[in-house]
Amino acid sequence: MTALQVNNLRKSFGGLDVIQDVSFTVEPGERRLLLGPNGAGKTTLFNLIAGDLRASGGRILLQGRDVSALSTSQRAACGLGRTFQILTLFGRETVLGNVVMALLGSSPKRWKPFGAVVHDTALRRRALSVLARVKLEGLADRPIQETSYGEKRRLEIAMALAQDPQVLLLDEPLAGLSKEERGTVSALLEDLPRSLTIVMIEHDMDVALAFAERIALLNHGRLLVDGTRDEVIADPRTREAYLAQ
Ligand SMILES: Nc1ncnc2c1ncn2[C@@H]1O[C@H](COP(=O)(O)OP(=O)(O)OP(=O)(O)O)[C@@H](O)[C@H]1O
Question: Which residue has its alpha carbon closest to ligand 1 atom 24?
Answer without folding.
Answer: 38
